Amino acid sequence: MRLTDKVALVTGASSGIGAAVVRRFHEEGALVVAAARSERSLQEVVRPLGERALAVPCDVRSIRHLEQLVRCGSERFGPLDIVVACAGILSVVPVEQVDEAVFDNIVDTNFKGAYFTARLAVPSMRDGGAILFVSSLSAHMGLPGNSVYGASKAALRAAARAISADLRSRGIRANVVTPGPVDTPLFDKREASGDVVAATKKDIAERTPVRRLATAEEIASAAVFLCSEDASYIVGEELVVDGGWRNVYEWR
Q: How far apart are CA 121 and CA 79, in angstroms?
């Protein structure tokens, strides 16, 4: 119960890593404000958690939605202690095919949405709170079709450090968790057949030193750590949870 009675706001909460973070924070004793675009999927995540969780439909690309999200959460549970900006989209587009609409959609969701989730929550946060951004290995590796996606995720690392500097007088820490390959519905949303998706997962698992994809729950465990008092001396840092994908030579 490392988050007992902490008030946590989590975006991207309707599936995958965001949903796992909501459930795990609830298990650790937090009061959770869960946000996502899909109200139906969001309710499926939140309903079993009872009165200690609140579902708020929200599109993080909209400042108005984010303002309403923070207001609803604060009115229900009081000042925020934790903010996890997990909402994001994975869009693989070769540079020759990137147009303004593609660029804006990715950046508005992955960077602008995450940044303003934190920015608009800060006035409602208690001193000593924690902000967590969810990045991606694409921020470190030059993967085909990931020029915009990778840049949008890399921006979060710089933002976390500068936000920590801005808020140092209030003791609010901003950090980043960077997952490696995770078995989430993002895989299934790609424009490919089930056989192609399965083959992709198999190939990635074989190239990962631990020989499997991560589960969303494993990333949620890292989120609990970074947002708890166990990480009280960790500020502006990035925790990579990738099964050895970057650092172990075996797969190369």
A: 9
> Is residue 106 scored above 80 in pLDDT?
yes
Catalytic center residues: 149
Listed residue (52, 75, 70, 50) closest to 60, CA to CA: 70
Domain topology for 7-179+214-241? Rossmann fold (3.40.50)
Lowest mean pLDDT among 61-70, 160-169, 219-228, 238-247: 238-247
Domain boundaries, the chain: 7-179+214-241
Q: Which two tokens stand for residue 2?
A: 């490392």
Q: Is the separation of the CB atoms in 119 and 45 below 8 Å?
A: no
Q: Which residues contact 64 (CB under 8 A, 6 or more apart)?
A: none
74 vs 70: CA distance, rounded Å: 6
- Collect all residues with Cβ–Cβ distance below 8 Å to 73 and sequence separation of at least 6: 7, 9, 33, 54, 56, 80, 124
Looking at residue 54, what DSSP letter applies? E
Q: Which helix (H) or strand (E) holds 125?
A: strand 125-134
The letter for the amino acid at 163 is I
Residue 230, helix vs strand vs coil:
helix
pLDDT at residue 38 tops 70: yes
User: How far apart, in whole angstroms, are the C-alpha atoms of residue 80 and residue 64?
Assistant: 19
Distance CA 231, CA 182 (A): 23
Q: In percent, how much of the chain has pLDDT > 70?
A: 95
- pLDDT given at position 102: 97
What does the CA dihedral 147, 182, 20, 28 come to, rounded to 10 degrees?
-110
DSSP conformation class of 215: P
* pTM > 0.90: yes or no: yes
Of all helices (H) and strands (E), which one includes residue 104? helix 100-107
